[in-house]
Design goal:
16-stranded antiparallel sheet; seven-stranded antiparallel sheet; disordered N terminus; 4 domains; 34% helix; single chain; 15 helices; alpha+beta; 25 strands; C8orf32 fold
C-alpha cells in the first residue's frame, strides 16, 4: 500500500521556514496511514469505474516529501485581524501577500501541496497552495468554503490581468451592480414594485452589450500585431485551483468563486473557469460527477446529491460509491479497510497559522507589488515603506503596450501634511491633491497645473474655518472665493486684478481693479433692503454699486450707484456728501426716497466696508502664499506620523526618549553634585591654586567648613524655635482674648476663633515635629560632613 507514496528519504520540498519541521510534517500517524489506505482503495475503485478521468488530488506530498490527505492540509484559523474576518479582506490579503507560481507543466496536477505555514513563510506558492491558505482563513471565520480543483483560462492560471480593467476603475460599476456573495439582511425592507418595462430594459442591455462588443472589436483591430495572442494549445486543459463559498453561513446570499491569486470574486457560471474535477474542505473530499462540456453554467453545487457529487467519506445523505459485483470479487481478495462510516478524520497535521502584525502590515513580498491591467499599471506599497507615505500608484495609459502615460493616481497614508490622494494628468499637467481634515488652514484639495502656474483652485473644509470659506480659485487676473454658512449671508467674492504675472510673495500685492460680493437673501429683511450684490470699482473713476434682491412678482431689482471721490482711500481724508455723485433705480415708484443723511451714512459704511474687504483680499493673498510655501516645504521633506498604538514603530521613539531622559538625569545629577560642593565657598577664598595648599591651610579650611556647618545647624534650630515660640504666644493671646470676651462674643467670632485655634495648633504641631527631627539629626549631619572632609582628596594630606 505504501509503495506508491514518497518516503522521508525522498524529499520533494523544503523545510517549514528556517527551522526544522515538526514531527507531524515528517511522518504520518497510524490514523493517517489508515486514511492513506482508504485513499488507495478509493483511487482503485474510481479508476475502475471512470478510467477516462484524470487522477484525483487526494494524497499530494507535502514540503517534506510525505504524502498527506488533502483535507488535513487545511488548518481552519481565525487570526486577530479585523480585515481577515470578511471574505473580501482575507482574499485581498492572500492575493497581495503571496506570489503565485505557475504550474509546470500547466496541464498536470502539482506533485506537492505545501502547508499553509510554509506558504506564509515563503510568501510564494501555486494556486493550490494559495487556495488552501485562503480556505483555511475563510473556514476559520465561519464561511462554508472549499478548495476547487479544475480547469481555467490561460489568463487565470498565469495570473495575466493585462486584458482586464483595474478593479479600482470599476468601483462605481460594482457598487451599482452589487457584488456576489453579499450578505442577507434579515431586516431588509422590500423595494417598491418595479413598473418599468422589462422588455425595454432587455433591449437596452442588448444594445449596450452590442456597442461594447463593437468597441472591443475596433480596439482589437487597431491593436498592434505583436499584441495579438497566440492560440493556446492547452486550452481547456490548464489545471487550476480556486475557492468556492457556498451560501448559508455568514449570511452569504448566493454561491460564488474567489480567485485566490487575485482576490477577486466571480459568479459560479463565470466563463473564466472551464471545468471542475473535485473540491474539498477540512472534513471531506467530493468528486464532480457532472458534465462540464459547456463550462460551469449548469453546474449544481448540492454536495448532498450523490448523483452529482461523489464524496470520499459517506454520510446518511451521501451514499458510498457503488462498485459493480464483478469488480468486488477481485477487490475481496485483498484485505478491506475498516468501514469509513465509523472513521474519524485525523486532525490537521499543520501547525497553527500565525501572521505577525509587521507581516500583516507589509502585505506584499518585500513590501511592494506591481500588477499590470488593461492600459494601466497598479503599484502597491506597504505602510511606511516609502519615505513619502505612498501606498498605491495607479498609472493609466492610452495604449495597451503601456508606453504613453496619460494619468497617475497616487494614494498616501500617515502623512503629517494630511495628504491622501494625488492625481496627475500627463497631457495637461494638471495636478489634483486631496487632504484629510486637520490642516491648519483646513485645506481640503489643491488643483494646479505644472504648465500654467498662475491658475489653481483650493477647496477648504468650510465648517472648520471661521470665515466659512469653501473654495478659492485663482487665475492670472482674478480670484474667486466661495463661502458657505456665513452669518452675513456672503456666498461669493470675486476680485479682479490688473493683468500681470502673479507673485507668491506676500509683500508684492497685485493692483486690485474691482471686487464683487454676492449675498444670499437675509430672511429677516425685505427684498428691497437686503443686499444681493456689491461691486467696488477701485480704478478711477472709482464707484460702489449696490444691487438688492428681487421683490416678489418683479423682473428687475433696485440698485444704487455711489461715485466715490478721488483720493478717498488715503489716510486722513474727510468724506463729504455730494448728492450728484449718487444715482439709483427704485423698483417701486411709490416707495419714499431715502434722505440725504441716510445716503451719506450708507456711503460711509460702504467706504469702511471697502477698506475692510481690501484687507481681507490681502489676507487671502497672504494665506495662499503661505499655503504654497508650506506645500513646497512639505513635498521637499515629507514627514510621516506614527500612531500611539503602533508599538513596533514607537519602540524606537521610546528608546530615544529613554536615552534623552537618561542624559537629562545624568546632567541633573552632575549639577546637584556641583551645587553640593561644600568646600567650594571656602576654597574660593584662598589666594592662589587650591591644589598647592600646605598642611596648615588645609586644616584651616576643614575647620572653617565644620564651623560653618555647626553654625548653620544652630541657626536652623533657632529659627524653628523662634517660629514655635511665636505661634505658641499668638495662640495664648487668642485664648486669653476669648476668655475675656466669652460672654459677649458672636457666633461668627466664635467660629473664627475655633478656626484660628485649629490652624495654630496644626502649625505648632508641625513646627514641634520639625524641631525634634532637626535636634535628632543634627549631630549625624555634622559627623557625616566630618567624614566626607576626611575622605575628600583635596584635604587628604591634612588628615
Amino acid at each position: 500500500m505504501d509503495s506508491g507514496r514518497a518516503t522521508p528519504e525522498e524529499p520533494q520540498g523544503g523545510n517549514v521556514g528556517e527551522e526544522a519541521p515538526p514531527e507531524s510534517y515528517r511522518s504520518n500517524s497510524k490514523k493517517e496511514e489508515l486514511l492513506l489506505g482508504y485513499c488507495d482503495n478509493f483511487t482503485r475503485q474510481f479508476k475502475k469505474l471512470y478510467g477516462d478521468r484524470k487522477p484525483q488530488f487526494l494524497r499530494p506530498v507535502n514540503e517534506c516529501g510525505i504524502e498527506k490527505f488533502a483535507c488535513t492540509t487545511l488548518r481552519p484559523t481565525c487570526l486577530p485581524y479585523k480585515e481577515l474576518y470578511d471574505w473580501d479582506g482575507a482574499a485581498s490579503f492572500v492575493a497581495g501577500y503571496i506570489t503565485c507560481s505557475p504550474l509546470h507543466p500547466p496541464d498536470e496536477l502539482p506533485q506537492q501541496l505545501s502547508s499553509p505555514t510554509l506558504v506564509l513563510s515563503r510568501q510564494e506558492g501555486t494556486s493550490f497552495d494559495m487556495s488552501g491558505l485562503l480556505c483555511s482563513l475563510l473556514v476559520g471565520v465561519g464561511y462554508d468554503a472549499y478548495c476547487v480543483s479544475g480547469y481555467a483560462m490561460r489568463e487565470v492560471t498565469e495570473v495575466d490581468q493585462g486584458g482586464k480593467t483595474c478593479p479600482l476603475l470599476e468601483v462605481g460599476e460594482k457598487e451599482e451592480e452589487g457584488g456576489v456573495g453579499g450578505k442577507l439582511s434579515r431586516y431588509l425592507v422590500r423595494p417598491p414594485r418595479d413598473l418599468s418595462s422589462q422588455f425595454e430594459r432587455r433591449q437596452e442591455t442588448k444594445a449596450s452589450a452590442e456597442e461594447e462588443r463593437k468597441k472591443r472589436e475596433i480596439e482589437a483591430a487597431n491593436a498592434p500585431v505583436e499584441e495579438e495572442g497566440e492560440v493556446d494549445k492547452y486550452h481547456g486543459l490548464r489545471v487550476h485551483c480556486w475557492v468556492l463559498v457556498l451560501s448559508g453561513k455568514r449570511e452569504v446570499a448566493q454561491n460564488f468563486f474567489i480567485e485566490a491569486t487575485t482576490g477577486e470574486s466571480y459568479s459560479t457560471d463565470s466563463e473564466l473557469y472551464l471545468g471542475i474535477e473535485s473540491l474539498w474542505n477540512h472534513r471531506n473530499y467530493w468528486i464532480n460527477m457532472q458534465d462540464c462540456a459547456r463550462g460551469l453554467q449548469n453546474l449544481v453545487f448540492d454536495l448532498g446529491d450523490a448523483t452529482k457529487w461523489e464524496s470520499f467519506f459517506p454520510s446518511v445523505d451521501q451514499p458510498l460509491l457503488v462498485v459493480p459485483e464483478e469488480s468486488t470479487a477481485t477487490l475481496g481478495e485483498e484485505k478491506k479497510p475498516d468501514d469509513k462510516e465509523d472513521f474519524e478524520l485525523p486532525p490537521s497535521w499543520v501547525l497553527p497559522l500565525h501572521i505577525s502584525s509587521k507581516d500583516f502590515e507589509t502585505r506584499c513580498p518585500q513590501g511592494k507589488k506591481t500588477t499590470l491591467y488593461h492600459k494601466s499599471r497598479l503599484e502597491t506599497f506597504s505602510d511606511y515603506l516609502t519615505s513619502d507615505g505612498l501606498v498605491s500608484r495607479l498609472s493609466l495609459y492610452s495604449d495597451t503596450a503601456r508606453r504613453s502615460r496619460v494619468e497617475t493616481r497616487s494614494v498616501y497614508r500617515h502623512r503629517e501634511d494630511r495628504l491622501e490622494r494625488r492625481v496627475e494628468e500627463g497631457g495637461s499637467g494638471l495636478v489634483h491633491e486631496e487632504f484629510s481634515l486637520g490642516r491648519e488652514s483646513a485645506l481640503r484639495s489643491h488643483t494646479h497645473s505644472t504648465i500654467h502656474h498662475h491658475s489653481r483652485t483650493l477647496t477648504f473644509y468650510h465648517n472648520a474655518r471661521v470665515d466659512g470659506l469653501r473654495s478659492r480659485e485663482l487665475a492670472s487676473s482674478e480670484m474667486v472665493e466661495v463661502f458657505q454658512g456665513r452669518p452675513d449671508f456672503l456666498h461669493q467674492r470675486s476680485t479682479a486684478y490688473l493683468k500681470t504675472t502673479p507673485s507668491r510673495s506676500s509683500g508684492d500685492h497685485r493692483e486690485v481693479l474691482r471686487i464683487v460680493e454676492k449675498f444670499h437673501h437675509d430672511p429677516s429683511l425685505p427684498p428691497n433692503s437686503a443686499v444681493a450684490e456689491r461691486v467696488f470699482s477701485l480704478k478711477e473713476p472709482s464707484s460702489i454699486r449696490v444691487t438688492y434682491h428681487l421683490e416678489p412678482d418683479r423682473i428687475t431689482a433696485s440698485h444704487r450707484l455711489f461715485l466715490t471721490p478721488p483720493h478717498s482711500q488715503e489716510q486722513g481724508y474727510n468724506l463729504t456728501f455730494d448728492p450728484n455723485a449718487i444715482s439709483g433705480y427704485q423698483v417701486d415708484p411709490q416707495a419714499p426716497e431715502p434722505k440725504s443723511q441716510e445716503l451719506f451714512q450708507q456711503l460711509e459704511s460702504l467706504m469702511a466696508a471697502q477698506d475692510d474687504i481690501i484687507s481681507q483680499v490681502r489676507a487671502s493673498e497672504r494665506e495662499v502664499a503661505a499655503i504654497l510655501g508650506r506645500r513646497e516645504a512639505e513635498e521637499s521633506n515629507p514627514q510621516l506620523s506614527v500612531s500611539v498604538y503602533d508599538v513596533a514603530r514607537n519602540q524606537k521613539a521610546f528608546q530615544q526618549r529613554e536615552e534623552e531622559e537618561e542624559r537629562a538625569r545624568e546632567e541633573e545629577r552632575i549639577q546637584r553634585e556641583k551645587e553640593r560642593d561644600y568646600l567650594a565657598p571656602f576654597l574660593g577664598k584662598l589666594v592662589g591654586d587650591a591644589k598647592e595648599m600646605d598642611r596648615e591651610r588645609m586644616v584651616a579650611v576643614a575647620e572653617e567648613c565644620l564651623k560653618d556647618k555647626r553654625q548653620s545647624l544652630v541657626d536652623k534650630a533657632n529659627r524653628l524655635q523662634c517660629q514655635f515660640d511665636a505661634e505658641t504666644e499668638a495662640l495664648s493671646r487668642k485664648q486669653a482674648w476669648y476668655k475675656a470676651n466669652q460672654d459677649s462674643i458672636t457666633r461668627e467670632s466664635e467660629a473664627n476663633y475655633t478656626a484660628f485655634c485649629n490652624d495654630s495648633l496644626f502649625r505648632i504641631h508641625i513646627l514641634e515635629q520639625r524641631l525634634n527631627i532637626h535636634k535628632s539629626t543634627a549631630p549625624e549631619k555634622y559627623l557625616q560632613l566630618e567624614r566626607r572632609l576626611r575622605e575628600d582628596h583635596r584635604l587628604r594630606p591634612a588628615h
